[in-house]
Amino acid sequence: MYLSTISRPKPAAGPGETGRRRRGAVSANVFALGTVSMVTDISSEMVTAILPLYLIIGLQLSPAAYGAVDGAYTGATVLLGLVGGYLADRVRRRKAVAGVGYGLSAVAKLGFLAAGGSVAAIGLAVTADRAGKGLRSAPRDALITLSTPPAQLGRAFGVHRTMDGVGAFIGPLVALAVLAVAGQQYDAVFVTSFCVAAFGVLILVLFVRDHRGPVPQAGSLSPRQAAGLLRIAGVRRAMIAAALLGLATIGDGFVYLLLRHRENMADVWFPLLAVGTSLSYLLLATPMGALADRVGRLPVTLGGYGALILVYLMLLGPVGGWPLVVAVLVLYGIFYAATNGVLMALAAPLMPERLRTTGLALVQTCQAVAYVGSSVFFGAAWQFWGPTAACVFAVLAGGVAIVATAILLFGINRPTATVEATS
Question: Where are the transmembrane segments (predicted)?
Fold first, then answer.
């Protein structure tokens, strides 16, 4: 069980949770958070499933321009992710901060209505949507860790990510249904997406319980104390590893566009590529989380990035047709199942409970900043040197990231005293 001995916060008494909870079960709070994520992901994936095709085909963006937009899509999480993480730890209102993030993403869906065909306006709407994601992600993940015994973190994140994957699976299908009913009018997708996102916020308000802990004394959590996280060796290593892994990730849109480019795929099938990945992801997220608790979170994470390298290699290889499409989507789902929640479960016990949200935000921010650079570089490489050269660069980056992460985090779960950031 990776890292479970580093810090052992008391599990929160979430709704329906008892000291005699069966091994393997997750708390009602984790299930409620998973439901919120599932509904929110239906809303988000309705938009993201059609956005790459809309920008590349509809608005005739170049691969380099799309890379910049895709980088902004994740890069917008950086600043608000850090602010939201620190604020949630300081005021002990993780649910409230997460709620603001979910609400911002919901309102951003209406921004697509006002954007029309303006790339700049679409970029602003995308930025607002991802800023909301940045604001909510660390408080949400911190609530999961504080509602779960350390030895079961992998399983809890796996269940949460499975429910998240269900939403990602349903979202593109809902988008296709809405487009069919509305006569291919994208505005109908944006309106429906907003309504679904608003319902997710309502579920958060009604069913998710906060984990506030003891009320802090005034000024007890200063920026200087938060910066003390950087003095913890394990946290620094996790941040560097997250950045390296972010450099190895090119983004869903590029993977699907590469498949479309290789197979001359009809546009009508494009949104279904995300459905295939989501199906693989939701089926494997919980088993991967449980496996990580048994054999170690680092090996599972590295195995997931190994699956990502295989995706890049298959896009370079001679195999084509439906075997290529199925293999890429299955491997891409394995990549997400083995890394998305497992990386947070790996990093969380390195951090003291009172700075858990800030610490997770730091790790997520390092990964997001690196992802921005990766998306921009991959798009430029595709445009100037071609998709084959771009994929070769991605394979090399992935190999370096796996080796460096293994070196950085090997043995990091050795028993130590509970870590605390110093003032």
Answer: 30-57, 63-88, 165-182, 188-208, 238-256, 268-286, 298-316, 322-347, 359-378, 384-410
Asked whether 179 and 186 are in contact (CB, 8 A), the reply is yes
How much is the pLDDT for 145? 85
Please state, in angstroms and rounded to a whole number, the distance separating the CA atoms of residues 33 and 141. 9
Token pair for 116: 């029309």
Tokens of 231: 């003095």
SS3 9: coil
The DSSP annotation for 283-335 comes to HHHHHHHHHHHHH-HHHHHHHHHHHHHHHHHHHHSS--HHHHHHHHHHHHHHH
Contact call for residues 35 and 144 (beta carbons, < 8 A): no
Question: According to the model, what pLDDT value does residue 229 have?
Answer: 77
Q: Is residue 144 within 8 Å of 347, Cβ to Cβ?
A: no
Q: Is the pLDDT of residue 340 over 70?
A: yes
pTM: 0.69
Residue type, 359: G
The first and second tokens of residue 402, run together, are 């796996």
Contact residues for 130 (Cβ-Cβ < 8 A; gap 6+): 72, 73, 74, 75, 76, 77
| Residues 222, 227: Cα–Cα separation, whole Å | 9
Task: Indicate the helix (H) or strand (E) that contains 47.
Answer: helix 28-48
The backbone torsions φ and ψ at residue 293, rounded to the nearest 5 degrees and listed phi first, read: -65, -30
Domains contained in the chain, CATH given: 29-212+226-409 (1.20.1250.20)
